[in-house]
Design goal:
Structural class: mainly alpha
Helix content: over 70%
Distance between the termini: 9 Å
Number of helices: 15
Number of strands: 2
Shape: globular
Strand order of the largest sheet: 1-2
Length: 316
């Protein structure tokens, strides 16, 4: 009984530390990898502190995403250091090759975007694509919630694959910070930068639609402008579509329809290059192909966590 209480108390302590670490990361002198290690330990600790239930599954996913958000934003904590490392030219060169000499984003904006005497004109297509982009924040997680409710036996595997895409993508943002099209356009006047005239239509529409509320809203969901390669918007949407297709054809069709719409929106709105999307597809494909090789190690980790959970709740 005493050992069980000690295990639970330790687990809750790790949950508390992991929840707090992203909030205080800028004030800590610890290396970022230590802060992230504490944050990512929280979901595992919660699986020891609480018995398995749907509520625990949802909370575990929430803690995982809390750790991911910190990993995503942390490279931009030192803006000047990140700017010195940012890659701008290679995705431009790749997209000009894919676009036969012209950036696909520029081609689409010239063909479809409209402006009048008072500024941009927002047609139904523009609004649809912007909202498709904004709705992404809910898509991977609502997909997992649907699977948890409809096919709970598939949930652990599907959640691991989904969040593996998030976490591997975040690690790549640390290694190779890459500028999106709109950022490259903003620094086009700097020495050595390639000229670019891509609009960031999502922000333009956000300022138009949300007006004074846009600044505070964007500050919540933004945080790292140099996190373009790979596109996790597209990677996680493709993963969601693949997982939904395994549940049923209708769900899969909806998933792939959304992924295709989002992919078009990301390029048209100036948020990503086509090569970013291809990088996202490659990441998703790698997770699905290499996942079985990681299966034995993950199974051992799962058994270890389950054993600790059992010991933590003995005689309760």
């Amino acid at each position: 009984m005493r050992l069980s209480r000690a295990i639970r108390a330790t687990a809750w302590g790790i949950v508390a530390a992991g929840t707090a670490a992203p909030l205080v990361r800028k004030r800590l002198s610890a290396p970022p990898i230590v802060v992230q290690g504490v944050a990512y330990a929280a979901p595992l600790a919660l699986c020891v502190a609480l018995r398995r239930s749907r509520t625990r599954d949802v909370c575990t996913c929430a803690l995982q995403m809390w750790a991911y958000v910190a990993a995503y934003k942390a490279p931009h904590d030192d803006e000047q250091a990140q700017r010195r490392r940012v890659r701008i030219d290679y995705p431009i060169a790749a997209d000009r090759l894919l676009g036969l000499g012209e950036l696909p984003s520029l081609r689409l904006q010239r063909a479809l975007a409209r402006s009048g005497p008072d500024g941009p004109e927002w047609r139904a297509l523009d609004q649809l694509l912007v909202w498709a982009h904004w709705s992404w924040f809910a898509v991977p997680h609502s997909t997992l919630l649907y699977i948890l409710l409809r096919r709970p036996e598939r949930f652990p595997r599907d959640a691991v694959m989904t969040y593996a895409v998030f976490n591997i993508g975040a690690s790549l943002y640390w290694v190779i910070p890459t500028a999106p099209p709109w950022y490259a356009a903003e620094v086009a006047d700097e020495p050595g930068a390639a000229p670019l005239a891509v609009r960031r239509m999502m922000v333009e529409y956000g300022e138009y639609f949300w007006r004074d509320g846009w600044g505070s809203l964007y500050s919540v969901f933004g945080g790292n402008p140099l996190a373009a390669m790979p596109s996790l918007h597209f990677a996680t949407s493709v993963m969601a579509a693949l997982l939904l297709a395994e549940v049923g054809p209708l769900a899969g069709a909806l998933g792939f329809g959304y992924a295709a719409t989002l992919g078009f929106a990301l390029v048209y709105l100036g948020e990503h290059y086509v090569v970013d999307l291809l990088g996202g597809v490659a990441l998703t494909g790698a997770v699905r192909c290499l996942g079985p090789r990681a299966g034995p190690a993950l199974a051992r980790l799962g058994r270890a966590v389950a054993a600790l959970e059992a010991r933590a709740h003995e005689a309760i």
